[in-house]
Amino acid sequence: MFSLGQSPSGTFVHPSGVEHSLSDSINALRNCYGDKQGKQFRVWVDGVLATHVGSNTWLVKFDKWELSG
User: Fold this and answer.
1) Rounded to whole angstroms, what are the CA distances from 66 to 16, 25, 36, 46, 63?
2) CA–CA separation, 18 and 16 (whole Å)
3) pLDDT in tens, the chain (69 residues)
4) Could you tell me which of 51, 55, 56 has the C-alpha nearest to residue 10?
5) CA-wise closest residue to 68 among 24, 45, 46, 35
6) 50 phi/psi in degrees, rounded to 5
């Protein structure tokens, strides 16, 4: 786990193909604070596949699941 101020460099690629920096993606979560407040909400990932694609580059794919209600 890492803090928002010391996140590792990286790129988040949305399934649509749009790329964002990892730190920008994490910071965007701040706008969601309270969105599910008062409701049970769970997020988990499975099927994690990490592939080494360069000397310092990894591609990580996973399935994200959400449950609320």
Assistant:
1) 19, 18, 12, 12, 10
2) 6
3) 333 444 457 788 877 888 888 888 878 877 777 777 788 878 888 898 889 988 878 888 888 888 887
4) 56
5) 35
6) -105, 130
